[in-house]
Design brief:
heterodimer, A: alpha/beta, Gyrase A, domain 2, Four Helix Bundle (Hemerythrin (Met), subunit A), Rossmann fold, 3 domains, six-stranded mixed beta sheet, three-stranded antiparallel beta sheet, 9 strands, 14% strand, flat, B: alpha+beta, FAD/NAD(P)-binding domain, Elongation Factor Tu (Ef-tu), domain 3, Arc Repressor Mutant, subunit A, 4 domains, six-stranded antiparallel beta sheet, five-stranded parallel beta sheet, 19 helices, 23 strands, globular, disordered C terminus, binds guanosine-5'-triphosphate, binds magnesium ion
């Protein structure tokens, strides 16, 4: 039902002319009685209207409340509900698109197709167990293995997509790290295009880490400046370094800065490289090249070769090398970004965990079929695999799903 | 005031009724067992075979709970087999062909010698109810018998209608009167009554079969028994035979399909998909040229044969024509035609997990009235219904078995959470915790209950606890004995690393059996329990250990959801956020826990999430309520 009319205040003065759509129970998003008011734009008018409305027994919705109600009303399933949560939190265009696809149920559809395939295989194995005396047309081992290999590769693909999924959802995370005084904060400010971080000649200036959003080639990138890493006695610095390492672990890319104006920079870097091997992608940046003369420059090139690294040569002071650095960063981001046109992306950590579990059981089942273990054990593994999938779409209800829902949608106040 | 005749009245002397009556008697109740014919207790109206996949597990559980079916089958068995031996112990299944007559006589003798049970030869016409509580039964003589609880185990007798071709006969079994008035009594009490169908093949004169043309299927030795107490019984086993239908059979049946009441539309109720009639099989799998038929003897001194796989409701002349086209049956004589039978049942959402009806207190349903098929399924329910009726009279809470501890629990939970529209048969695949629910460990799972409710002699229980302890000792011993792989001889090939290995680890290797490691065990401790029993238990426990551990984790998750109880008086219609369909479902099924609620068909995660919110709210309210003195 659509209505047209005006909203008036206590003195019957018209605030705005509006249209209102009333949605009957069962048809609305939340499954409850619902009305939507369309007014003319403008913050002021909007405020006035809300003021009037709040005079009745009406309150603004809590964050995520509509979704929560829609979920409780059975209007959307769990994956969709989680997609809505993603959508609300989406920071980038990519993120929005992937959340929307989830919302359209493409992910749950795809997952359900995989489930059906697994169930088909399971049903065959079960039939052979429960009807040992019938001449059943059971597929051969080869076909069973084919089925399970298909499942394994499909689920692997989904799990792999989480890396991109996480980037899509949370943005690409770059962390600048290095020894004190290397010029990390200088680079941070440079990429940010503003003097956000304090820069001084004193080593150990940055104590806490600092994160800002920047845009690179249309991607949302979170950029973090960290405290310089060195052996330290001060408790404050130590704790800063602890967090620096935590940030580095979470990074999609680490920019490790070395100060080539230091005499011992080569041996320091050699030492640092070994420590860096436990982290993910690292880009080595050799800073303060403006302080190097020609012979020193040659030394740098040969040192790079010697160390066997890809070293980017930079001067924060003269900005030489900054264009190249940006290009490298964009390359690295694109390498990790999925092509969303033909692929589904898992963005939820919970989904990834369940898929990983499911994969584990599928692999057990695969091994079982290969080595021809007793079919009830293969069935056990397959059943677990299916259960984990069902926990994604909410077909199987367990306490951790409950917990997830309660933490996402603050139910039960 | 009316004179109270019995504690418990059991209507129907089939497999459910017999177990119900016996367990009620063991727990000290006076039982009236209403049956049309004193001599026809626990008849096997279908084939005289007990057990098979899933069903054998139920029989073992019945034995662990002190029931009679296992012992009766062992004592009257004429062929003993164990299915799936090439697979793991969780899916081993004992199956025994019993001597139909001997089985019936064995049970009759036990019932007739039981001083607490009186068989009342009559038909039950109505349930007598006062203040929403069953108080007795009205018999066809017009007489009323009073009791504190009534258990209904009417099998196919409730509104039974036999179909043979176009012929329709009101009967509960061939030649036996059906119960029509009782259905009306249920209807007028407010029960929903549905209709199911099942079928049975013709019986053959065994002397007219040419067995030389069939494959012989002998029993196995040593005989596998159902009861843990059965000691070897000396009998010569009788073989079964396997034969096949032919292209001729197919032709005849295809030409006469319309004469089958299933196809002519005369029968509208649903039959079981897992046990189709021969006409159904030929119609649905028209590309197959032959179907298996098992020829099963009905008894030692009985030449009748049951052609398993040839269930039919075609007219008698067509039955004969078709069956004569089967290899080896060219000259066969039919002693009794096959038929389809329709009967009434009460969809099981109307009972609680205790098998008591939700509508009428102290009224219990067991067996086919709940939509199941099979002797074993019926007997399992009968036992629990009898026990729970008895407990109710003693004002004790009922015994409710869960899905993680027994097949009986799986069955009852399935029944009460799903509206079965076809007869329900047990399969091992119905049990999600199958690896933990095995034939070998039914006592480990249920003996504590049996002991608590005095269903078994005390000394049996203490003997078993000794067996359990000695099994543990033996397992500990096997983990302690470590030998070098080099000493293993042939077995050594399995190991990549040539190191030391414990005997327990050795036993987990596929293909390694207890006998292989026995030479390394050294002096055998002197155990009180049977050495073979310990051996078997140890082998199975060790071989399955890894899986059982994993499965137990699942079980604890499951139990967590099961233990979130929903109050019985939950006002579903007033709960916010529940879909109408969910409100309707919950009101209808009245789930006892969130776990059970989530298994109700058509219920979504959203419904459970919403429900769980209300359950938490409700239990918080309960907690905050001031203590009432
Ligand atoms: N000549 C020269 N000086 C630079 C360059 N980059 C940074 N500096 C100087 O080096 C000093 C340290 O720079 P910061 O950016 O504060 O270094 P940092 O790595 O953040 O140091 P901490 O926070 O203490 O770990 C400052 O005095 C900067 O001006 C460069 O490319 N050339
Ligand atoms: Mg700094």
């Amino acid at each position: 039902m659509m209505y047209y009319g005006s909203i008036v205040n206590e003195t019957d003065t018209i605030i705005d002319e509006v249209t209102m759509v009333q949605m009957p129970v069962g048809n609305s998003y939340t499954g409850l009685d619902q009305a939507e008011i369309f007014c003319h734009g403008g913050q002021y008018v909007l405020k006035q209207i809300l003021q009037q409305i709040y005079k009745f027994d009406i309150r603004p919705a809590e964050p995520g409340e509509f979704t929560r109600r829609a979920f409780l009303a059975g209007r959307i399933d769990l994956t969709k509900a989680e997609a809505v949560a993603d959508l609300i939190a989406s920071k980038t265009e990519y993120s929005y698109r992937s959340a929307r696809d989830n919302l359209l149920g493409e992910l749950s559809q795809h997952i359900n197709t995989l489930r059906d395939r697994a169930i088909l295989l399971l049903a065959e194995i079960e039939a052979a167990i429960d009807y040992p005396e019938e001449n059943l047309d059971i597929s051969e081992k080869k076909n069973q293995l084919e089925s399970i290999e298909f499942l394994i590769s499909s689920i692997k693909e989904l799990i792999d997509s989480y890396k991109s999924g996480k980037i899509i959802k949370e943005g690409f995370k770059i962390v600048i790290a290095g020894r004190p005084n290397a010029g990390k904060s200088s680079l941070f400010n440079l990429l940010l295009n503003q003097n956000r971080a304090i820069v001084t000649p004193t080593p150990g200036t940055t104590r806490d880490y600092l994160t800002e959003w920047i845009e690179l080639d249309g991607h949302a990138v979170s950029l973090t400046d960290t405290a310089g890493l060195r052996k330290s006695v001060s408790a404050i610095e130590k704790s800063g370094q602890f967090y620096a390492e935590v940030e580095m672990k979470r990074a999609d890319l680490i920019i490790w800065m070395a100060d080539i104006s230091k005499k011992s920079w080569k041996s320091s870097l050699l030492y640092d490289l070994e420590k860096l091997s436990k982290f993910g992608d690292v880009l080595i940046v050799l800073n303060k090249t403006d302080l190097a003369n020609k012979t020193a420059f040659k030394n740098i090139s040969s040192a790079i070769k010697e160390l066997g690294i890809y070293g980017l040569i930079l001067s924060c002071k003269t900005r030489s090398g900054i264009g190249k650095l940006k290009k490298d960063l964009i390359n690295s981001i694109n390498k990790n970004m999925p092509d969303l046109t033909d692929r589904l992306v898992v963005t939820s950590e919970r989904h990834k965990k369940k898929l990983t579990n499911s994969l584990k059981y599928l692999k057990n089942a695969q091994k079982g079929i290969q080595s021809e273990i007793s079919p009830e054990l293969i069935a056990f593994e397959l059943r677990q695999a299916v259960n984990k999938i069902d926990e994604i779409t909410g077909r199987i209800y367990t306490e951790d799903i409950l917990d997830n829902i309660f933490s996402h949608f603050c139910i039960g106040k | 005031m009316k004179h109270l005749d019995f504690d418990i009245l059991v209507i129907g002397g089939g497999h459910a009724g017999v177990e119900a009556a016996l367990v009620a008697s063991h727990t000290g109740k006076r039982v009236g067992l209403i049956s049309l014919d004193k001599t026809k207790l626990a008849l096997m109206s279908c084939n005289p075979s007990v057990g098979g996949l899933g069903k054998s597990h139920i029989v073992k559980e019945i034995d662990a709970l002190g029931g009679v079916m296992a012992r009766a089958t062992d004592a009257t068995g004429i062929q003993f087999r164990k299915l799936n031996l090439s697979r793991g112990p969780a899916v081993w299944a004992t199956r025994v062909q019993a001597d139909r007559t001997a089985y019936n006589q064995y049970i009759c003798q036990i019932i007739n010698n039981d001083p607490n049970i009186e068989v009342i030869e009559a038909a039950a016409d109505a349930i007598l109810v006062e203040n929403g509580q069953a108080v007795g039964v009205e018999l066809d003589s017009g007489e009323s018998v009073m009791a504190k609880a009534v258990i209904v185990c009417t099998g196919t007798f409730l509104g039974g209608l036999i179909h043979i071709g176009e012929k329709k006969i009101k009967a509960g079994r061939k030649g036996e009167k059906a119960a029509y008035k009782l259905t009306n009594s249920f209807r007028s009490l407010g029960f929903e009554v549905g209709r199911l169908k099942t079928g049975t093949p013709p019986r053959l004169d065994g002397t007219t079969i040419d067995y030389d043309l069939c494959e012989i299927q002998p029993g196995i030795e040593p005989k596998p028994y159902f009861s843990y107490d059965t000691k070897a019984i000396e009998i010569e086993q009788v073989p079964c035979f396997l034969t096949y239908t032919t292209k001729e059979t197919k032709k005849i049946i295809q030409a006469n399909l319309k004469k089958s009441p299933m196809f002519s539309g005369q029968i509208k109720s649903t039959g079981p998909r897992y046990c189709p009639s021969i006409e159904d099989k030929i119609y649905r799998f028209s590309d197959r040229d032959r179907h298996q038929i098992f020829l099963e003897p009905e008894g030692k001194n009985n030449s009748e044969v049951y052609p398993n796989g040839f269930s039919t409701s075609l007219p008698e002349d067509i039955q004969l024509k078709a069956i004569k086209t089967i290899t080896g049956l060219e000259n066969v004589k039919i002693t009794q035609p096959g038929y389809a039978i329709e009967y009434d049942y009460c969809p099981a959402y109307q009972i609680k997990n205790s098998l008591e009806t939700k509508l009428i207190a102290n009224l219990y349903f067991a067996g086919q009235i709940n939509g199941t098929s099979g002797y074993e399924e019926a007997a399992g329910q009968g036992l629990l219904a009898g026990l729970n009726a008895s407990l109710k009279i003693d004002q004790e809470p009922p015994l409710i078995l869960d899905r993680a501890e027994s097949y009986i629990g799986v069955m009852i939970d399935d029944l009460v959470t799903r509206s079965t529209t076809e007869p329900y048969r047990m399969f091992t695949s119905r049990a999600e915790y199958r690896l933990c629910l095995r034939e070998d460990n039914a006592r480990d799972r249920l003996f504590d209950y049996a002991n608590r409710y005095n269903l078994i002699p005390k000394e049996k229980y203490s003997q078993f606890t000794i067996l359990q302890k000695e099994t543990d000792l033996e397992m500990a011993k096997l983990s302690k004995i470590v030998i070098s792989v080099a000493k293993l001889g042939k077995l050594a090939d399995i190991f990549e690393k040539k190191e030391n290995v414990s005997l327990a680890d050795l036993l987990t290797v596929p293909g390694v059996e207890y006998d292989d490691i026995e030479p390394f065990i050294g002096s055998n401790g002197s155990y009180l329990s049977d050495a073979d029993a310990i051996k078997e238990r140890v082998s199975i426990f060790i071989k399955y250990k890894g899986y059982i551990k994993k499965q137990e984790r699942e079980v604890s998750k499951f139990r967590n959801m099961e233990s979130q109880f929903i109050p019985e008086d939950m006002p579903y219609n007033e709960l916010n956020g529940l879909r109408n369909e969910a409100q309707e479902k919950f009101t209808r099924f009245k789930p006892i826990s969130l776990g059970q609620a989530s298994r109700i068909e058509g219920v979504t995660t959203g419904d459970i999430a919403a429900l769980s919110v209300h359950v938490r709210k409700y239990s918080n309210k309960q907690k905050n309520r001031p203590e009432v003195e």
